Amino acid sequence: MIEVEILEQFGATQKSLDKGETLFAEGEPAHFYHQVLHGEVRMVNHIEDGTEFIQGIFRAGQSLGEPPLFGQFPYPASAVASQPAVVSRLAYPALVELLHQYFDIHQRFLATLAKRLQYKSMQAREMSSYPADHQLLTLLSYFKRQAGDPPAYLVPLTRQELADLTGLRVETVIRTVKQLEQAGKLALHEGKIVL
């Protein structure tokens, strides 16, 4: 999202994370802008029964945790590396200065936040109002559009990850995927979902 060279000009540092390591925890105050350089980081909530709900998956070039930073409230979820990752961290005052100096980055930043709000709105509507097949197709279609709407989109998520993103049980996701395949709404190729 923000060029690494520009982040470094404003004093960003890099933090390496091992798989399973926490970047920040739910309830902590937000002091840094975070951008994934390599690997993958997930924003998750841990439910009392031991399950986790994935709020978002962030890969190289994507940033995370900005709303609490700008809104000055604690993180509503934890950020955990789902594979080894390197994250660039920039202190909030330096980020504000960067955005003042680079209007084009400021505009990209606002567009990214707007897309995240659109995703959260869609997710809330789907989870509260629709059956599992509709929830899954809407989520998969959203990810396909984000990938540029290719003719055949190979979904890079496991059934468990889909369950964690939708709040459905993994058994429901497995059963629903099979039903959607039988209905011709998606395909399976070597166990992977293709939309």
Top keywords for this entry?
two-stranded antiparallel sheet, alpha+beta, 7 helices
Mind sketching the topology for me?
Layout: H1 4-9, E1 13-17, E2 22-24, E3 32-46, E4 52-59, E5 63-64, H2 66-71, E6 78-91, H3 92-101, H4 103-129, H5 132-146, H6 159-166, H7 170-182, E7 187-189, E8 192-194
Antiparallel strand pairs: 1-6, 2-6, 3-4, 3-5, 3-6, 7-8
Structural notes for this entry:
There is one protein chain. The chain is an alpha+beta fold and 195 residues long. It has helices at 4-9, 66-71, 92-101, 103-129, 132-146, 159-166, 170-182, and strands spanning 13-17, 22-24, 32-46, 52-59, 63-64, 78-91, 187-189, 192-194. Strands 1, 2, 3, 4, 5 and 6 form a six-stranded antiparallel β-sheet that branches. It has a two-stranded antiparallel sheet with strand order 7-8. Helix 4 packs antiparallel against helix 5 (132-146). The longest helix is centred in the middle third of the chain and has 27 residues, at 103-129. It is globular.
